[in-house]
Amino acid sequence: MTEEENIIKVGSLPDIVPVFPLPGALVFPGASLPLNIFEPRYLSMTNDSLAKGRWIGMVQPRDTMEHPVPDKVGIFEVGSLTRITSYENIDEKRVLITLTGITRFNIESELEPKKGYRIVKTNYGRFENDLQVSSDKLSDRGRLISAAESYFQRMIEEIDLSDTSEIDDASLLNALCMASPFTVAEKQALLECSGVAERGELLSSLMEMASLGDDTSSLSDLAH
């Protein structure tokens, strides 16, 4: 099968998907996210997804960092469509899954929940490019690497990005976005960027501001 033949078409994507609200969880197209599932409603969601297409939508909740996320909390209008690409049954009350990002989507409406988990109607029109082979590149890869090294040294721990020549721009960018402990609003802004170049510029700016010690409100303003 050629790369072009393997691309998922918009018409084959699900119009209705279960969603998992999780603060800070980003899954870009082609990226992977491991999850430990133990809440009964999300165990039900996982089982239902495995029986029907393996689709799960990842979304961020608004205005809460609570775990578990309250049932009625608002969610952002843009999320990530993923597929379960690995599954391990640990015991009767816990499973480990890996989700792989396919495309982003807009939420048209939220439907009645099922077995305690939330369900939405999706629209993929804005993000059709996610399903295409892209040549989108970082506009300044060196700036991003420098900003990331300074940022992680200040915020978490020092990292060495000197040997990243074998990593393509999208993979490098996705890994940095997913690993960075930004606010929910900042992560949502990164998710909604049009492509690699725009996301790279925003991520570089966010990291540079944080490295300079600018406060959270300034970072949130930039993300919007």
Strand order of the largest sheet: 1-3-4-5-6
Shape: globular
- Radius of gyration equals 18 Å
Oligomer: single chain
By CATH, the superfamily of the largest domain comes out as LON domain-like
Q: Which ranges are low-confidence, i.e. pLDDT below 50, for 5 or more consecutive residues?
A: 1-6, 215-220
Chain-wise SSE layout:
Elements: H1 3-6, E1 16-21, E2 32-37, H2 40-51, E3 55-59, E4 78-91, E5 94-114, E6 117-123, H3 141-155, H4 169-179, H5 184-192, H6 196-211, H7 216-223
Parallel strand pairs: 1-3
Antiparallel strand pairs: 1-6, 2-5, 3-4, 4-5, 5-6
Question: In a few lines, what is going on in this structure?
Answer:
This protein has 224 residues and is of the alpha+beta class. Helices cover 33% and strands 26% of the residues. The N and C termini lie far apart (41 Å).
Label this structure with key terms.
single chain; 224 residues; alpha+beta; Archaeosine Trna-guanine Transglycosylase, Chain: A, domain 4; 2 domains; five-stranded mixed barrel; 7 helices; 6 strands; globular; disordered N terminus
Q: What this model shows, in words?
A:
This protein is α+β, with helices and mostly antiparallel strands and 224 residues long. It has two domains: 3-131, LON domain-like (Archaeosine Trna-guanine Transglycosylase, Chain: A, domain 4, Roll), CATH 2.30.130.40; 141-223. The protein has seven helices and six strands. The chain has a five-stranded mixed β-barrel. A hairpin with a 2-residue loop joins strand 4 and strand 5. Helix 5 runs antiparallel to helix 6.
